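Review box. Two proteins, two foldings.
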Amino acid sequence: MGVLNDKAWGGVFVSDNGGLSWSQKSAGLNGQDVFSLGQASDGTVLAGTGHGIYRLQGELWNRVNNVSLRENESSLAAAENVEKKVATPVKHTGKARIVAAKKTTDAATVHVFDANVNAIARVGDTLYAATSDGLLRSVTAGESWKLMAGPEKEDWSFVASAKSWVLAATLRSALLSSDGGQRWAPVNLPETLTQLAAIAVDDGGGLWLGGREGIFISQDRGATWQGLKNLSIRDVNSLYYDEPSQRMLITANSQNTIAFAVHLPDRSVHYWNTGWNLRLVRPVGDHLVGATLFDGIVVQPRMVDSSEVARQRETTVANEE
């Protein structure tokens, strides 16, 4: 889990025993607020902060500076031209030429990616990051990132993905790709939705948006939108598609102690009243874990099938007899 606004006492915490105890793992973050967490396909944990992306290697977080932005292309090209102009007319030793080339190359690579990293999503080996400096993609477990062609270089607040679908959004606009980010198309948002607070995409290409006015779902890439007939909910703060269980997990400020699960494709609704003000819920194994705004992490007890318990007791008694 990541913590905001706590400086040395914040950062990232990890539990290896189901949430019974937690240890701080923030060495190398330098007190950065953690806006988002993700995990690469090789297990590497990534942190999106207010000052770039960090990768956890052992016990230490390392900042990722191998981020290719469009501005770099022109600066690198300019650096190459400068190097050629400097090196060509100089009639000195090879050593002098090498020094000149090294200086221009160093000048071109002094770029630190310092943007807000608001969300991280993954499909297979591909990672996506929504940042204040554009939408990024990585196919190297987060070691290097490239600015995606197509989306404008603006402040992206959300990114969600499932199979080949990628949905990215600001607070008032959205783009959709059906081919892993190769091509993008704008999404017409619902007219009654004033501002986005959460987004998700399911593996059938269904788009899910959440905001103050509730939940909106589209099965036709945003051409039309509809709500959930059996769930009236407003002020949504989190949507998460749990692909293994084929369900959408939902929390909302208006019903802040309840975690909802909408199962696909029939859209049947299950819910749990946790007793805590939830900011989001995520699946961990066979139970849910929730993050609260002010009361830490809450864990759903592991449920036991009473009929199975009764059957085991009957078997035990029979064996004893």
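Next protein.
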Amino acid sequence: MKRRHFLAALAGAGAAGFAHAMEPSRAMLAQAALRSPDVIFVPTPNQVVERMLEMAQVGPKDVVYDLGCGDGRIVIHAAKKYGARAVGVDIDPDRIKEANANAKAAGVTGKVRFILGDLFETDISEATVVSLYLLTSLNLKLKPKLLSELKPGTRVVSHAFEMGDWKPEKEEYVEGSNVYLWRVPPRKA
């Protein structure tokens, strides 16, 4: 997408009343324009979304980050059902546009925001819960970021894909998929 089209779309989203529209930095614009998504968008089934958020014990004091948020369904559900603040990150401008439209339709624009950006570069330090539906190879690449940026005790849930030698605290089988839960451990002195 050309930069001027992207900025026009962003301006349109702001004019439509999205409470937390975020203007991306030039670096994010360049990065989003240069790199394609790491995975294709495959929606997480609603029953899996629900179980992921239940396993993470999401509540109104949480800040949920969905890395590779797609259409925003995990972010929206976390805000609508559990009262959490939630942030979705995706590198695909079409997914961000769709997620914002879905949030507006669900009436949660005041509790959610969507960031057009690279999940490997986005600051996730405020998250108390992180959700993922990537590949094991991407989870492994993301693992050092999760362990260094997130506070100890932060919950990480993944649909279908593991984290190598980081063993999950909990694992369940839902709708034909595994769902995994980890907690960021205390930092070593």
